[in-house]
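Work Package 3 (structural annotation) set out to generate three-dimensional models for the target panel prioritized at the project kickoff. During this period the team completed the workflow that converts sequence records into discrete structure tokens, so that structures can be stored uniformly alongside our sequence database. As a representative example, we reproduce one entry of 244 residues exactly as it appears in the project archive.
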Amino acid sequence: MSLALFGAAGLVVFAVLVALGIWQVQRLHWKLDLIARVEARVAAPPAPPPSPAQWATFDGTAEEYRRVRLDGRFLNDRETFVQALTDLGAGFWVLTPLVMADGSTVLVNRGFVPPDRRDPASRAEGQTSGPVTVTGLLRLDEPGGGFLRSNDPANDRWYSRDVAAVAAARGLGPVAPFFVDEAAGETPGGFPVGGLTVVSFRNHHLVYALTWFSLAAMLAGAGAWIARDERRRRAAPRAGRKAR
């Protein structure tokens, strides 16, 4: 490869590396803005969730992790158990329909139970049958299943909180296109254990940006060294001829 062609290829790679670095800086600002918006939602006073009239135009990106308050009655006989791995160990999320005063239904993730608490009889105190007020965080639907594991409604095996599939399997009819993670300390008897929502975002964009910019700087330095060495080699024969 000629030096000119090598230099042109190096300039293309340099431009790509710089562009990747700039993109990661943009992603960093986007992520910081997202974190700030989510933290504000989590800290805000609870408000009613989107109404059925708003479900068709529901914008999850603008609503996720917003604190909400629900009033209604649980359909405890239609619980769904979703496999979960939490700080408390392996077990299940208990997803329970809540019928609100206006007749609409919202799935509520009441929290975590270990395998020995899956049977409702083992946590009878938490099977609230009367009117309840639930506060928690609005979460987005998780269709399909978990990592490498698909939901199997026919065999009642669930690996994600798939709102539409759960509603169909339990014969619930129309339900909200989201679910709500119940807050901690609201369940009599302590089970299910609520308030385990992990609000965390990976934010390595600054590291990625520095990596791309560093590679670009290294490439530029190598290119400068090669160009200087080439000039030195070309100048050497001329200097030899003059000396003779």
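The mean pLDDT is 85.
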